[in-house]
Specification:
Helix content: over 70%
Number of helices: 23
CATH topology: Sodium/glucose cotransporter
Low-confidence stretches: 215-229, 457-461
Mean pLDDT: 82
CATH superfamily: Sodium/glucose cotransporter
Strand content: under 5%
Structural class: mainly alpha
Largest sheet: none
CATH class: Mainly Alpha
Radius of gyration: 22 Å
Shape: globular
Order of helices and strands: HHHHHHHHHHHHHHHHHHHHHHH
Number of strands: 0
Amino acid sequence: MTLDSSWATVAILLVCLATLGVGALGLRLSRTTSDFYVAGRTVSAPLNASAIGGEYLSAASFLGVAGLVYSVGTDMLWLPVGYTVGYLVLLVLVAAPLRRSGAYTIPDFAQLRLASPRLRRLASVLVIAIGWLYLMPQFQGAGLALRTVTGGSPAVGTFLVAAVVLLSVAAGGMRSITLVQAMQYWLKLAAIAIPAFVLVWLWARQGQPLPPATSPAGPFAEPLAAYAMREHATYSTYSTILALCLGTMGLPHVLVRFYTNPDGRAARCTTLFVIGLLGLFYVFPPVYGMLARIVLPSLPPGTRPDSVVLLLPTAMVGGSLGDLLTAVLAGGAFAAFLSTASGLTVSVAGVIDQDLLADRIARWSGGDIPRTVSFRLASVVAVAVPYAAASLLSPTVALADTVALAFAIAASTLCPLLVLGVWWRRLSVRGAASGLIVGGVLSSVAAGLTFFGVVPAGGGDAGWWRTLLAQPAAWTVPTAFLVAVVVSLATPRSVPRDAARTLVRLHAPEELSDGR
């Protein structure tokens, strides 16, 4: 069936206009630096949970999970499970203490806990790198979606998302983006759920059998870089789960959300709401992957598995109904790109502003330029670099795989810093720095080799080496923790003198830590 792209084009434009409209409302509410960075710390738990759900459900969730289920089978259901469980780990370990820290960003927390400007700069580099790696698949997914539903150039979709995100973030910062992302969560849920119910109903009327739960990737699509070799499936599964569970707390756009809550109790309530909202959404992507196994036994050469969600309605229904369902899904996909990219841009721009631009601009201007101006300049940098990379690079991995690599790096670097910083008084500056460097180097090298296809996508003589590099979290995360602990024990003099007092601040109720 051919697709009438006009409906999809209208849906995409409506989503972009709605994003800009709600962002403009946030502009009227944003006045102070606190508004731009943490929305004045006044966001309620239900609103914050909706916003977190909006920014967390990215291209990997809306398109990538279905593509992996389609290509590999139900083994990939561990991905949505891991995405959701990551918030439970975050709730138990760091949610409330991070809110009590009073920090704006992860580097802020690092300096508060360990009082080291050098460690702060190191954490800043990692936050920016992880944010940019996570932004790339959002921009690339937008290009893929636009080409699939309209036949247009992928460059147009990439530019559209980058431009809308930049305008939204620069307009009102975190307060603006909070309203945008909360709206986009419910839009995405409706966009993926309504077509799913329609397509399942149509399939049930036809009485077709279920596809096999697992099968090699070849009959359905081109092999995927990170999951093509399944002889080490047990290791790959556990490594993926570890990366997702621990990497969630290391994602900069996730953690910054807990600084917007008014207190630690609200941060914990927010996390509980988030788990429910994520679980509700993740019911649907696997449905598309399994239905596509029935309707689309093979894809045309050059078609990525990530596009099956958008291809399925016209393959099953066709006609006006198929075009309408595709338009709804296209609008939801663009909402996913916009919301996640917005959250990442806010977090990365905040770090760039505080640690790279603000002081330099203040010296150059004599302190006459407001911090909101430097934040907007930082937003341009935060978007420009991953936009250029997404436009120039052609990765060999799927959208969900790229995001999984970002999770692995976050789990191997910022997660040890946060967990040990919150719970272990003897963490030293040198120990924390050593953990960040070792975990960052090991996970980044593995991710880079996988991302650029240096490691064979499947078969060959790579064997265990390929699997270890494609799924590095199982060995990079323990290594980073071990290095941080051993070096800390060996360098007790670099433990901050006020470490005990800082830990009391992180764990005591707000009314006590505030001196009331």
